[in-house]
């Protein structure tokens, strides 16, 4: 299919000369930052093309408006307006830094413009002006939402439904009254909070307050009879008190009718907005004065009871609701936060999660059903045991004689999943009911890892389940080994996605992940005679207890077929693309599988939705009767192959086509699901950006952009330019690399065969985009060619990264260096075109899995030293370790924890590889995907260099039998792990070389234990959880400027491993926080790489190699690695490596950096000989990692890109009172004692405990 010929159109005449380019010095206004328009805001708006593609500069901000202009001579209105300005400006001052805005004048102006109309409305009957009032307040509140941090519909619903819902309740039947009364009271709680915020927006005495006072049935009055029953609890965690005294008035002062003075006061252990105790350990007291009507005060006096010198009202919701509306929301929020938490802890599920429309119409026959579903599962040991046994007998159909540890583990997993389903349903219901904006994380892979331990830690049920299972005859620690790693990811991209879901849920952000349910994962790696062997990863063979098959969530995905254009409508512009129908081809069904994602210390539970392919027709009876068995089987297999394997082998056209279809299958199902959910909210699809934010995790999901355009235009009848405006609001793009293979391009022929409609949409987008570029760069064909979505070389290809940039409102790199390279090199023309579109958000990892879960020994020491577990959700507190880094007792504990972790890894290596290593040796670890730019080859060559040096030293010392006995020799264990892509031949050669070196070194009696080399196959999350805590030094030695971020660096540093690496990715930022003196850097920097490559290529072949590297290459070339039959029998693979290095074909600068690498390794060994300084640097490394938590990363995504707010079901996270440091420390003391650690260390722990350290 050719691109549409639009050369005969007159862009200037039609107004389609789109995309004026923004000036670099333009300031970003509040509206542009909060509602980014990739085309219209950054480039301008065009009145002819539906105000989407115009190039005109942004209009200046509106001038301030005075009170006199709004209110004329109405003094009361002027006073209200001035008071309103003061209120908003105070709110703005507190939140200015968070929202990064400069002037709230527009908000004040908008609110002030409605003040007079609301003031006038109060003089008439409320019912006559309800519609006008609701609309005016709706507009005003919408503008004020960033400052109030509230949802718009909360306020509007409170104003509107307080008049219309309550009267309907009074008219309901007798059968509905008892159930409705209780449930409605709980729903009114949410509405009363909204009213309090609305009253805070319009200060006391304002027009709105007067209007609200005309309500026939005030919400606070309605709550009096029922709310006390809901919220009264024995232990509130806070104390609400009123100081009552008569108000004194002078003779000349007008006395308010029926009013007395009072002070509302709340004493609480918590600082508002924080989950931590105050540093001084004292309670925080918040109080405000207000006038309370005598009628309410009389009721209050009846409830008063004395506690010492304070008169306390236990709970009076009506009075508190009224007081909060007068005092302001801060005091009220603190009280509501504690009340909601206590209610959730007592397992009273909030009925506000139940849709009011449904609850009002439920019949008596379903009342019992609602009642039974209104409580959470108990957390007692006895109930957990009963729950597990029920699953064994009724779900798995096991008898008392057929139960085994594996089935018991599966039943325990199902019981944990049941608890997640409860909170998952509640989270989903409240987000849907309140139309809260969700973020959707779109990733082709998720490296989740085992879930049982993490879920128990997040739910804080580890102790209960361990005890319950022990009494049933099973050890939880042993049973955890039965869980298999899900085959849903491969490398850092998938692990980052999993970390993000964990952090977003922990922080209570409404987020869903979308991916594919791979039946066989990528592959399971085995090492056979030094070669990598790929076998299917049948991780689903035993079932997956965490997933929920949604057979009712099914979408049709089309491949192939033809496109038929529909006639234009009279309202369409001549050049505007028309809608089409896509027909024919084959259709595949996408079936949803949900995976609940828990968060630490929160009731919020998000979802990971995975798609599985199914035949559209389950069974073709006609073909079966005709005997076409082979054809039927082939069609079914073709469908199922779509989700069989992650990253199919792309060395053949069939493999590339399968990967292309796999990505579209994922995109189509996801976009259909998001649109369906948006439609169910009742909002038009033009409001989709206010309901959904889609993050493209690298280029794989970028086909979602034309797919959303197709659905909006062809299926839902939206005009093309309107649909593009919606689409460009919804998407944002994260680029994770600068390597060519990751910046995907697909042949145009693939689109013509598989996605003909999407190719036409891409052509249309590209045409409008190029017109804008031509206006900015007239006659500059080279830059037009570089920016085009179509690569016109042979064969023509679609640039998916370009499509992602043009179709997104934000593009971010994942480390500062990486973002700079994107701006200055990779996407420089796009950055010049859209300078404000590119931002940086440095990656992070979740401390829950990569420190708390995988390194329990070190975690307990950190909690003991810091005195709390708050660092689990606020890693900035790790910086407090710096003050104790030289403590002898802390250093001994730190070293002891490292030894325990190394013993665990040594035991694993002995069991799986049969290699005996000493835990006292230095563990030098490099584990990651095998790739040339990660330079595992350089590490392997260094090991061979070290081996040759040791051999020479043994030969010179005749009286020494073994290298480990030589003075000054540091005993080292080099550990590798990682997979090579099936079609990546050079990466497989590197694995073979490492295995050959390991075979040579490990079997040489002259070396002994002084040097060991281990390659651990089938690297996975569960294997990383054993390796990472045991690292002494970890290597991240990629060529500078090639690694995007390197999240594996962060995982090692959290556990105190010292970094040996290049100045690449996030390592630069880590060194800034950890301290340059605590890391080992070497090699060319990113700015030197290009110059070095040019100089290196001009040198003579032999001169470019250092003496040490030449010696190593000569050793390999002499076939001395081919021993014991474990190396490659034909050393052609090794010869290719040697030839490239000798001939200067060294793109990743191994030869250039090798000398510097050897010198830095010598510094590492020198420091190892001073254990106190080594441990001190290890402690400082962990202390400096606070910024590299994925909690920080995801919060930046939510604030800077998605504009979503956290919506917690429970406000408190990491409750201090649930953590007892001394009790937890006993566990590690017993573990240390059993491991042979000296008694003096244990005594020092006891001394520290007694001192309250």
UniProtKB/TrEMBL annotation:
**Keywords, A to Z?**
Carbohydrate metabolism, Glycosyltransferase, Pyridoxal phosphate, Transferase
Q: What class of enzyme is it?
A: transferase
Q: Which InterPro entries match?
A: Glycg_phsphrylas, Glyco_trans_35
Cofactor(s) needed: pyridoxal 5'-phosphate
**UniProt-listed Enzyme Commission number(s):** 2.4.1.1
Q: Where is the composition biased (Acidic residues)?
A: 17-30
Q: Where is the composition biased (Polar residues)?
A: 262-274
Ranges for region Disordered: 1-43, 167-192, 249-289
Q: Does the keyword Lipid metabolism apply?
A: no
- What Pfam families does the database record attribute to this sequence? Phosphorylase (PF00343)
Return the Basic and acidic residues bias intervals: 1-16, 167-190
Report the family membership: Belongs to the glycogen phosphorylase family.
State the NCBIfam families in the record: P_ylase
Protein name per Swiss-Prot or TrEMBL: Alpha-1,4 glucan phosphorylase
- The species this protein belongs to is Aduncisulcus paluster
